[in-house]
Amino acid sequence: MREYATTLPNVVVADRNLFTCSQDTQEKIKEYIREYDLNRVVVASCTPRTHEPLFRETLRQGGLNKYTFEMANIRDQCSWVHMHEPEKATEKAKDLVRSAVAKARLIQPLADISVPVNHNGLVIGGGVAGMVSALDLAEQGVKTYLVESAGKLGGQALKLYATYQGDRVQPYVEDLIDTVNRHPLIHVYLNTTIQDASGFVGNFTSTLVDKQGKETQLDHGAIIIATGGKPYEPEEYLYGKDPNVLLSLELDQEFIRGSDRLNHTKCAVFIQCVGSRIPERPYCSKACCTHSIQSALTLKKLNPEMNIYILYRDIRTFGEKERLYTEARARGILFIRYDPEDPPKVEKENARLTVTVTDHVLQRPLQISPNMIILATAVVPHDTRSLSKLYKVSTTPEGFFLEAHMKLRPVDFATDGMFLAGLCHFPKPIEESIAQAKAAAARAATILAKESIDMEPIVSVVDEDNCNGCGICERVCPYGAMHLIEINGLITARSTPASCKGCGLCAASCPSKAVDMCHFSQHQIRAQICALA
User: Fold this and answer.
1) Which end of the chain has fewer CB atoms within 10 angstroms, the N or the C?
2) Domain containing 513 — which CATH number?
3) What is the DSSP annotation of 83-108?
4) Count helices and strands in the chain by DSSP H and E runs
């Protein structure tokens, strides 16, 4: 490969390294830049997604513009996918290197885009995740706006009785609410929603509207969305038709109130996976198994003679939570597995509830007559569509907000300057929501602590002389970076570099070829295609 690379046009030097990303090789690249007076560098190795920033920094330290770098991904696209065809993989690697060199010959130096930063933060959602994020930002000296659509802070945590360790949730939530309300840098907006939004990282503007229709405009540099979730309300299992059929959180509220009827309940049945792990909601809600077992143990403590049954598809008490399952078995709580094709049947005759379930061991139906039925329903997100449209962020098919990358950017949105936490991201127990909220606040603080931020200049540019003002680019841009403006009576498109993410949709859609992409220009891509052909 090294010998082949030296035969390509304009290639002055080529080298082979075992680990091109190692510190020794980085120093060698700098030496080659100085020795051969290089003005372009191509690395053929692994994915640019993880290592391109490293090589760009090496070029910068070597005295070159960091955007004069090009990378060929021969690991993912050759050696990994064609491991059993080494000769063909090598030929493909040559094609990729030849293509990368062809593009590198036409690369132009670019300058980072610097934008000033507004040092205020916006947190949308006043549940535990939202309050923790707001408090973490405020404790770092950030003026924080906390927006909640309900009339009180707390969210779903107001209905929770205890954590899996047995710690009471209510005292923690009330203390958190009090701390947030008293903090001088946190401005709370209750009964308020987001009506409009614009801007980009470091310079967002959001318009709030309350129940009275009063509008408030806020300028801020970063956004944390923590709008939470809620339990699915089923139509099955007689829910809403019998007061003794409860949701898991409704049982928690019975615990919080100290309801006397719990002491007199002789038999309780928990039914798991209600409305989840089905085609409409194929995900596991993660906290349901632990919560049901913990609630069953709480009932046992209130009334040791109570018969308790947990009807489940799979028990998922992972990690330290496994001890709850062990304790439940030891305390005489019975677990009965049911087939999803043959779910339990709940009936009511003469004011008496009956649950019929087929035991997979006995292979026969069992009939239980409980005083109370508790349904562990799926966690579903609040309406995320309006915010996703306003802030140009993605959602999953189930309606949860989607992070940029589950490993590399787990609390970031793909839109810079926006972060997420809590149940709006995915079902999770309260301790994970708190941890994610702290992570989101830490990520937001990395932006809000700066006077200005540098952004990649790999953005769209418009040749206004060729633009005919058709507006296609404005309609297809998912980030709102393209706008039509009037210049000397003529309509033309203009790009906002700070909002552009370099996806290229505008350039690909422009019928007059008036839009191009920095670092991925049409003539650069054409050169790559010609090199491959």
Assistant:
1) C
2) 3.30.70.20
3) TT-HHHHHHHHHHHHHHHHHHHTT--
4) 15, 26
Task: Please report the sign of the dihedral spanned by the C-alpha atoms of residue 59, residue 60, residue 61, residue 64.
Answer: positive
Can you say how many angstroms the Cα of residue 524 is from the centroid of all Cα atoms in its chain? 33
Are 488 and 442 in contact, with CB atoms under 8 Å apart? no
Enter the tokens of residue 172.
């923690």
Residue type, 358: T
Instruction: Provide the pLDDT confidence category of residue 298 given band limits of 50, 70 and 90.
Output: very high
Q: Are residues 367 and 398 in the same domain?
A: no
**What tokens appear for 232 in the block?**
């699915």
Beta bridge partners of 347: 354
What stretch of H or E contains 372? Answer: strand 372-377
Same domain, 303 and 348: yes
Average pLDDT over residues 458-475: 93
Domain-embedded: residue 170: yes
Tell me the longest C-alpha to C-alpha distance in the chain. 93
DSSP notation for 189-227: E-SEEEEEEEEETTEEEEEEEETT--EEEEEESEEEE--
Q: Using N-to-C axis directions, what is the helix angle for 430-448 and 128-139, rounded to 10°?
A: 40
Q: What is the average pLDDT score of the chain?
A: 94
Beta strand extents in 378-466 (DSSP E only): 379-381, 418-420, 452-455, 460-462
- Give yes or no for residue 181 having a pLDDT over 90: yes
User: Does residue 524 lie in a domain region?
Assistant: no
Helix (H, G, I), strand (E, B) or coil at 124: strand
- Which domain covers residue 248, as residue numbers? 234-379
Residue where a domain terminates, one of 110, 145, 162: 110
Same domain? For 252 and 309 the reply is yes
| 139 Cβ contact partners less than 8 Å away, ≥ 6 residues apart | none
Q: Whole-angstrom Cα distance, residue 77 to residue 170?
A: 53
State how many domains the chain has: 4
Of 324, 239, 233, 235, the residue nearest 287 (C-alpha)? 324
Rounded to an integer, the average pLDDT of 444-459 is 93
Q: Are 143 and 120 in contact (CB under 8 A)?
A: yes
Instruction: Mark whether 420 and 310 lie in a shared domain.
Output: no
Whether the CB-CB separation of 374 and 269 falls below 8 Å is answered with: yes
